[in-house]
């Protein structure tokens, strides 16, 4: 199963990437990525109360262009559940962010629908933060 979603964001790829990499900005999305941004390293999402929500490994990272990571079921990281990638394309003063999740576990139709809705909501929130002038002034 595969989910593919894109969103048009009225800013540059570098500014979109700040939403992924700058903890002061990612907090506006409800947490921070825990990683050192080196391929092969741990990659996960931690909420604002410090609870680790997702567990994974960074596969590829090219700032402003491409991010790919694995997502595991549980903190023991024994069962791979999906591979997620983000790609940016700059076109006519805006960025197209394309997200793909390759699901490796079977989902019911309802679970798949929830996952698709979650992606749509997450990308719209990322767009809102990336387009906010005050957030983009953060170095």
UniProtKB/TrEMBL annotation:
- Any Pfam family from its record, for instance, is AHSA1
- Which InterPro entries does the annotation name? ASHA1/2-like_C, START-like_dom_sf
Which positions make up the signal peptide?
A: none
The superkingdom listed in its UniProt entry is: Bacteria
Q: Domain (Activator of Hsp90 ATPase homologue 1/2-like C-terminal): give its ranges.
A: 10-130
Q: Which family would the database say this protein is a member of?
A: Belongs to the AHA1 family.
Q: State the name under which the record lists this protein.
A: SRPBCC domain-containing protein
Its source organism is Pedobacter panaciterrae
The organism's taxonomic lineage, starting at the top: Bacteria, Pseudomonadati, Bacteroidota, Sphingobacteriia, Sphingobacteriales
